[in-house]
């Protein structure tokens, strides 16, 4: 069990677009996506951004820890996506740094608000996953499998064909 994973506050969301800026803030357009559109001609979802925000107590900083994002299918298994060597699970791990020391008007306030680490994973071309599917994003910190956070979403299907007569 990891003290980082045990004490962290994690939020996950899907947006039409999101990015982090130089000041460490997340800029978001169209947050709260629950159903991604599907483009049948391309075999991809619509464009979206996965946003992850981790807040840690200042006493744990400075520190580095792995942040893992995985895509799970409806059964809770790692979702498979096409890759260079064929089908492979969609999982990304990244070592992030959490630094303390934020000051406002000369006063250190990080003990009060904690330390934030943000990740914006922009899928500007969409994701090649099945239409009409149910999925979840899972976030794990510091290799701790006992603590995880998830965000459920669905992928819509192609629109129904018109009915004549």
Describe the structure.
- It is a single chain.
- The chain is mostly beta strands.
- It has one domain (3-155): Immunoglobulin-like (Sandwich), CATH 2.60.40.10.
- It has helices at 3-7, 110-113, and strands at 9-20, 26-31, 35-36, 38-39, 44-45, 48-56, 63-72, 80-83, 86-89, 91-98, 103-104, 107-108, 115-123, 133-141, 149-155.
- The protein has a five-stranded mixed β-sheet with strand order 3-15-14-7-10, with no helix packed on it.
- Strand 11 and strand 12 (107-108) form a beta hairpin.
- It starts with a helix and ends in a 10-residue tail after the last strand.
- The mean pLDDT is 90.
Sequence-ordered SSE layout with sheet pairings:
Blueprint: H1 3-7, E1 9-20, E2 26-31, E3 35-36, E4 38-39, E5 44-45, E6 48-56, E7 63-72, E8 80-83, E9 86-89, E10 91-98, E11 103-104, E12 107-108, H2 110-113, E13 115-123, E14 133-141, E15 149-155
Parallel strand pairs: 3-15
Antiparallel strand pairs: 1-2, 1-6, 4-5, 6-13, 7-10, 7-14, 8-9, 11-12, 14-15
Condensed summary:
By secondary structure, this protein is mostly beta strands.
Overall geometry comes to: elongated
The stretches of 5 or more residues where confidence is low (pLDDT under 50) are none
Number of strands: 15
| Main pleated-sheet profile | 5 strands, mixed
Structural class of the helices, strands and pairings?
mainly beta
Question: Helical region count?
Answer: 2
Read across the widest sheet, the strand sequence of neighbours is: 3-15-14-7-10
CATH class identity: Mainly Beta
Q: Please state the CA-atom Rg, rounded to the nearest Å.
A: 18 Å
Helix content: under 10%
Specify the CATH architecture: Sandwich
Integer average pLDDT = 90
CATH topology, by name, is: Immunoglobulin-like
Number of domains: 1
Q: In what range is the share of β-strand residues?
A: over 45%
The end-to-end distance, rounded to whole angstroms, is 63 Å
The CATH superfamily name is: Immunoglobulins
Order of helices and strands, N to C?
A: HEEEEEEEEEEEEHEEE
């Amino acid at each position: 069990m990891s003290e980082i994973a045990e004490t962290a506050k994690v939020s996950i969301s899907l947006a039409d677009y999101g990015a982090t800026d130089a000041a460490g803030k997340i800029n978001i357009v169209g947050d709260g996506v629950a159903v991604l559109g599907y483009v049948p001609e391309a075999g991809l979802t619509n464009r979206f951004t996965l946003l992850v925000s981790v807040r840690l107590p200042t006493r744990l900083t400075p520190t580095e820890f792995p942040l893992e994002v995985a895509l799970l299918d409806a059964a809770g298994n790692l979702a498979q996506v096409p890759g260079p060597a064929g089908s492979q699970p969609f999982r990304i791990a990244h070592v992030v740094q959490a630094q303390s020391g934020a000051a406002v008007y000369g006063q250190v306030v990080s003990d009060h608000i904690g330390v934030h680490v943000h990740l914006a994973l922009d899928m500007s071309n969409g994701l090649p996953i099945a239409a009409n599917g149910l999925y979840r994003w899972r976030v794990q910190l510091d290799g701790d499998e006992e603590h995880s956070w998830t965000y459920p979403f669905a992928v819509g299907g192609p629109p129904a064909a018109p009915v004549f007569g």
